[in-house]
Write a structure and sequence with these properties.
This protein is of the alpha+beta class. The chain is built from 19 helices and 14 strands. The strands form two sheets. Strands 6-7-9-12-11-10-13-14-8 form a nine-stranded mixed beta sheet, with no helix packed on it.
Length: 578
């Protein structure tokens, strides 16, 4: 739990769960899956109690097919468990209000104990669940107006929940006023209504703005039919409406202080949308059964369209697996990894494995470089430093951390697994010897510049890439240079991927902050080894076949230095596969 800003209940449950189920990725995610299944069952129970069994079937079907809820039910995070606890608390509240016995017999007492227990657990699993407490207050106030005697247990239980949550309530308020992290923003009420309805029904399926508004209008219309035309269900209308709208309004109000909204918060009010739409389908069924069936099928078709995009590249969650894999396959024995923000260290090291040289010293938004200095002043003892960030547009909008490193050390590479950036900086650009992993060479360019060796990360690869920088694949090349005498001129490095006819199918990416911007060739000292790292960007249309990586040094007059009787060096050959 160290470094994580959320309440402790989920982490305690996960720890106990892992003691039984193990620590595999499947086992860890399975806990949330179980809560997702319970979530569907509770949606049926609440819709059935508020409206009708048919509404319960429709609502639970929509909950089961919601691509956004499926997407979050695969996540080893606390959002679905917290929403499920909150939904269980709502089920207990409604049953308690409809049970006239109150605290007088065991059955009534069970409902109120369940209401207190599940709602408190929900708030202590994620702070977003506390946005439902105003909904409970409205429901209980309505019950007090309509039946004072029956509402007394509800009032007592509600105040007990508020008292139990009081130690953490201040955190909710503070959380709305501090510098945010992650993908938080401040929506308007119309924006959040549009986003909530569209995302909960089709997730982030690629649709035009007009198509999105069609989905929102269609789903919203059926919701309104459910809350307006369902017979004899004033409590159901109140709960479906307030359960959906009030938490959204609370988020908008709190976000006025500072951006607060995260899309994952939508899971807390999602049961209300499913229940209201389910009640609408049931109402249309009673009016004209074929019409009700047709509307239900259309709603399911929209959901299934969203389900088809859950696992596609570019729509996945933060891709920690590929971020860790890239560093594992490219790191040296004396490299340091910096993860920002601090609580993202946990998912990174789960896939990375090695904790020893992985640090996460900064917990939130950085305001200036002075606070970085004390933490990172000793990183020059490492050969390279990897900076791994996610949501840096919020956590580090001014790129304070990245700039601190980039102004001191050359950039070797940057990779972009989904929603994550991975950058490698060379802290020791001048090794004492060529490493044993390098392919040895002794090729002289002109009279004094020597290429001592190289490393290529892949010699058999596809021309396209889905995970790091689509659509093009890259080849990472490390060159080890030495000079017999300090050059009087600056020679530009040109590296290309050529076919046998000499046609170029890839080339070096030119980046600001590369080795030569820190250490131009005219500063290289005799017999000093210089390590230069580059990425070759392949044309995604490159046909399969054999290609050569060609290196040239270009003089200021545009001529290439001679190497072995040619004006180029064939470094190695690579194979492009389908």
């Amino acid at each position: 739990m160290q470094g994580d800003p959320h309440p402790p209940v989920y982490w305690v449950m996960l720890k106990l769960w892992m003691m039984v189920a193990g620590e595999s990725e499947e086992a860890i995610r399975l806990l949330t899956v179980f809560f997702g299944i319970i979530f569907v069952a509770l949606t049926f129970a609440l819709a059935r109690k508020l409206f009708s069994p048919r509404a319960g079937v429709a609502a639970s079907t929509f909950a089961a097919l919601s691509s956004y809820l499926i997407w979050n039910s695969q996540d080893a995070r606390m959002y679905i468990p917290s929403a499920t606890f909150g939904l269980a608390g709502m089920v207990c509240l409604v049953n308690g209000l409809k049970d006239p016995s109150g605290f007088k017999n065991p059955k009534g007492l069970v409902w109120w104990i369940g209401y207190f227990l599940f709602t408190t657990l929900s708030c202590y699993t994620h702070l977003g669940a506390s946005f439902l407490l105003p909904v409970h207050g409205i429901i209980i106030a309505y019950s007090f107006i309509t039946n004072r005697k029956r509402s007394l247990p509800a009032i007592i239980s509600f105040f007990a929940i508020c008292l139990a949550f009081l130690p953490f309530a201040l955190n909710v308020w503070n959380n709305s006023g501090v510098s945010p992290i992650g993908n938080r923003y401040a929506p308007t009420l119309d924006q959040i209504l549009h986003n909530a309805t569209f995302v909960l029904w089709t997730n982030y399926a690629p649709l035009s703005i007009a198509q999105q508004w069609f989905v929102v209008s269609f789903v919203g219309a059926i919701f309104l039919i459910g809350v307006i035309f369902s017979p004899r269900s004033n409590l159901g209308r109140l709960i479906a409406t307030t359960y959906y709208l009030v938490p959204l309004a609370v988020i908008v109000i709190l976000s006025a202080r500072n951006p607060l909204f995260m899309p994952k918060m939508l899971v807390f009010m999602s049961p209300a949308l499913m229940i209201g739409v389910g009640a609408g389908v049931a109402a249309l069924w009673r009016w004209r059964r074929p019409f009700g069936i047709g509307v239900g099928v259309a709603l399911i078709a929209l959901q299934l369209y969203g389900v088809g995009y859950i696992w596609r590249p570019g729509l996945q969650k933060e891709d920690w697996r590929n971020a860790a894999r890239y560093i594992q396959t490219h790191q040296g024995t004396n490299d340091l990894v910096i993860v920002h923000v601090a609580h993202y260290r946990l998912p990174f090291i789960y896939y990375f494995g090695d904790k020893q040289n992985v640090i996460a010293p900064f917990g939130s938004r950085l305001s200036n470089q002075d606070e970085i200095e004390s933490q990172l002043k000793d990183i020059s003892k490492y050969d390279s430093v990897w900076l791994v960030q996610t949501g840096e547009e919020i956590a580090d909008p001014n790129r304070v951390l990245q700039k601190w490193i980039a102004t001191r050390y050359p950039l070797a590479t940057e990779q972009f697994p989904f929603s994550i950036s991975v950058r490698r900086f060379i802290t020791q650009p001048s090794p004492t010897v060529t490493p044993p992993t390098a392919k040895k060479l002794d090729s002289s360019f002109g009279d004094s510049i020597r290429l001592l060796g190289y490393e290529v990360d892949s010699t058999k690869l596809k021309a396209t890439d889905d995970w790091f920088h689509p659509p093009s694949n890259w080849i990472h090349v490390t060159l080890y240079w030495s000079v017999a005498a300090t050059p009087e001129e600056e020679f530009a490095l040109q590296v290309t991927v050529d076919d046998e006819a000499g046609k170029v199918w890839g080339g070096k990416l030119d980046r600001a902050g590369s080795l030569r911007s820190f250490y131009p060739m005219r500063s290289w000292q005799p017999n000093q080894i210089m390590r230069e790292e580059i990425d070759l960007n392949l044309n995604p249309e490159t046909p399969k076949g054999d290609y050569k990586i060609v290196v040239r040094l270009i003089a200021p007059d545009g001529s290439a230095l001679s190497v072995g009787g040619n004006d180029y060096l064939i470094l190695t050959r690579v194979e492009i596969i389908e």
